[in-house]
Amino acid sequence: MKNDRMRHVIVGTAGHIDHGKTALVRALTGIDTDRLEEEKRRGISIDLGFAHLDIAGPGGQSGAVRLGFIDVPGHERFIKNMLAGAGGIDLVLFIIAADESIRPQTREHFDICRLLRIPAGVIAITKADLVDADLIELVRM
Question: Which domains does the chain carry?
Answer without folding.
Answer: 3-140 (3.40.50.300)
